[in-house]
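Hi there, hope your week has been kind to you so far. Thanks so much in advance, here it is.
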Amino acid sequence: MFLNVLLERNPGFIRAVLKLHDEGRLEANTYVLDMDALRQNLRVMTDAARKHNLRLFPMTKQVGYNPAVHRAVAEAGIGSFVAVDWMGARSLHQQGFAPGHIGHLVQPPDGVVQRMVNMAPEIMTVFSLHKARVLDAAARRAGRRQDVLLRVYGKQPIFYPGHEGGFPASGVADAAREIGKLSSLRIVGVTSFPCFLFNDEANKVLPTANFETLLKTARLLQSELGITSHYINAPGTNSSDLFETMAQLGATDAEPGHALTGTTPLATVQTVVEKPAVLYLSEISHMYNGRGHVFGGGLYVDPVRGAYPLHALVGQKMEKRSAELIPAGGIDYYGYIQGDVREGDPVIFGFRPQVFFTRGQVAPVEGVASGHPHVTGYFDAQGHVIARD
């Protein structure tokens, strides 16, 4: 779905990757990042956020918590990140970057809450009174007060499977009163997920019922308890094209993820301000029954727009071929490429990635814009350095 966008808006990136693969500098099962395009996206993003007075907490799980991306974000003037889980927070912290928001998608287990608090995150999200009490004890031991957000949901919430949880809006005032009794926590706002989603019928990104609940809950906490929501944290399909709308509707925070690489759903139906900055590189391993087997390891396609036919570019001539993934439940040692292909042919995919979920490798490339591309490092799916030589 993103392959056509990549071809139309960043063909030089594809040519650079093919050249580097031919030279042996890039190998199969590698997510390649165009750092020139990514920095351009960051400039657009920070300008838009500044204009509309939004805080940014970038999400980098989808690019494998890559340190080159983290450096680029920091150089763009963005001070901290959101971590999808405690392992992501640990990766950020070990690389020397600030995990500014922890807990809004995955709560830290009780046994690691102290480690998270010791990282001094700007905010942490809690789903329950139990977690609030565990967090309070950890903050007290650390000798600091931890600012927290309450994750809330309404009568008809929208959740991805496995993302359920939080405080029901009908009981959030009682929960806030109990948390208010804890000496080392301070409620500073509310969050939910997803707050915005791409709507196929409207062909644009719209606020969800979760976002309406977020605003109502913030007003309720203010009117009943005098708690000001300094953070109305509204993650979900956040990108520069949406920032003005988010701010006008009342959000204070955006958590852009795929906006960094131009792979938001909106990019499939219109020319968004962010430029495509990521692709997946593989290679034909061998043939069987007239079908090419392509090396896998990172063949997880984020189904953000539902199921769709998968295609790839094969060989130096970039010929488009149909591709097929293994059935659900199998290990992606290989995928399949249809048509006339040869062993050793490079294969370029343009799907939307979730690198942290895979065995994929990540290679940042500099110099695409200047015509002198070079690989600046190789990393695994958690941001650790791979020594190739």
The first strand starts at residue 30 and ends at 34.
